[in-house]
Amino acid sequence: MPTFIVDQIANGLITLRINGYNYAHTFALAGGLPPALAPRARVRGTIRASAWKVDRVELGGNYVEPLVGRPRRMQGAILSVNAPAHELTVQVGYEAIVKLPDKYKASDYHVGQRIGWDNLRLPTFQPGPVLSSPEHA
Fold first, then answer.
1. Is the dihedral of CA 131, 65, 95, 22 positive or negative?
2. Of 6, 14, 56, 116, whose CB count within 10 A is highest?
3. Which of 5, 12, 7, 8 is nearest to 33 (CA)?
């Protein structure tokens, strides 16, 4: 589970950064808001995306477009396949779980394969443990 730095929280949205990356991505908050979760806090959590189109790719790195704002396009290497749930976990610069559209089968993909996808809607962030609060950041 990756570690994120909270940039801001407002109106059911959370913007997260990762050390060493230029990303500042905004996600819909899923689940409750832990009390210690505030700007500058370090937190772990799960990113979930729903794809409307998936492409197998041979070249290119792990990335999310655009660098700032709502993630629209994500690409990376598959870390795990969950065929019953119709999901793939992909390293895109951070781990993201992508729900495939009905016309795709998760079992047709394998660990290590590279894919890219366009998000159907705003991906979600489910907060996990808060590792440090802002006063300790």
1. negative
2. 14
3. 12
2 pLDDT more than 90: no
Tokens of 14: 């959370």
Tell me what the mean pLDDT of segment 70-88 comes to. Answer: 98
Radius of gyration in angstroms for the set of CA atoms belonging to the chain, rounded to a whole number: 15
Q: What is the pTM of this model?
A: 0.92
Confirm if 97 and 76 have CB atoms less than 8 A apart: no
As for how many domains the chain has, the answer is 1
Quote the pLDDT of residue 59.
Answer: 86
pLDDT for 19 = 81
Amino acid letter, residue 24: A
Strand, helix or coil for residue 68: strand
In 2-113, beta strands by DSSP E:
3-10, 13-17, 24-29, 42-56, 63-65, 68-69, 73-82, 87-91, 95-99
Quote the domain boundaries for residue 127.
Answer: 3-136
Q: What pLDDT is attached to residue 134?
A: 65
Q: Find the mean pLDDT for residues 68-75.
A: 97
